[in-house]
Amino acid sequence: MTTTRLGSPTKMSLARGHVEVLQFLRDRTSVIFTFLFPAMLLLLFGTIFGQSYEETGVSASQVYAASMIAYGVLTTGFVTMGAGLAMDREDGTLKRLRGTPLPVVSYLAGKLMLVLVLAVSEVVLLLLVGVLAFDMPLPDASHWATFAWLFVLSVIACTLLGVAVSGIVKHARNAGAILNVPVVFLQFISGVFITPITLLPSWLITVASLFPVKWMAQGFRYVFLPDSMKQFEVTGSWELGRIAMVLGAWCVIGLVLCLVTFRWSDKDR
């Protein structure tokens, strides 16, 4: 009896996740701008800025390849979740959900499955570009362990923030434009589009340090770049402990914001 109760929501979650993935893939605009756009930017930045970092033997292209993973995770988590929930709210999907056998948890789990599929695929695509186009070496096993918790915390934080922000989007048709404004802004001040981050004014770095993207990019640089590159970070070290604490804090903040801002329909404003 217990197995049946647990299995049914699980099956519905998987089925909903399958539907979410198929719906996303059928929208060519979403595929290009959400999934392929970070890889295209990596090719562009990596080709234009290919100089090496002093005596480290690391090219700017490889630094971009590592840093852009943060951009890919943010786009798939924050923008995809935020825009998707705003659309489902506006077209009445969330409202109709209350009258169907599909539990709310299964619906949200389906959305999370979409984000996970896109995030993993995005990372694989960016790594392929980095390795094949810019000769970025892959890390050893210990760095992959760091990548695992860094990736999980990054996806959770960005997804929860996407859910929270969806509650304040007035019209779904404007969701993409609204959500991409903070995304692009944070990339420029967080050491993703401009490297090394120390080229930025100190006050701008301080602002970036308040948000998760700066720490995500720094963590991914630790994973995929040699230890000699830590001299180009703000403190001259990778600060893995601080990265974990900041991303963990943003997971909590995102959850609180979800509880405060989430609504089922436009009438709940």
UniProtKB/TrEMBL annotation:
Coiled coil (UniProt feature): none
Keyword hit for Cytoplasm: no
InterPro entries in alphabetical order: ABC2_TM, ABC2_TM_bact-type, ABC_2_transport, Nod_factor_ABC_transporter
Domain ABC transmembrane type-2 positions: 29-265
Annotated TM spans: 31-51, 63-87, 108-134, 146-165, 177-197, 244-264
Broad class of the protein's primary localization: membrane
Keywords, alphabetical: Antibiotic resistance, Cell membrane, Membrane, Transmembrane, Transmembrane helix, Transport
Subcellular location: Cell membrane; Membrane
Membrane topology: Multi-pass membrane protein
PROSITE patterns: ABC_TM2
Pfam families, A to Z: ABC2_membrane
Family the entry assigns: Belongs to the ABC-2 integral membrane protein family.
The name this protein goes by in its record: Transport permease protein
Organism lineage: Bacteria, Bacillati, Actinomycetota, Actinomycetes, Micromonosporales
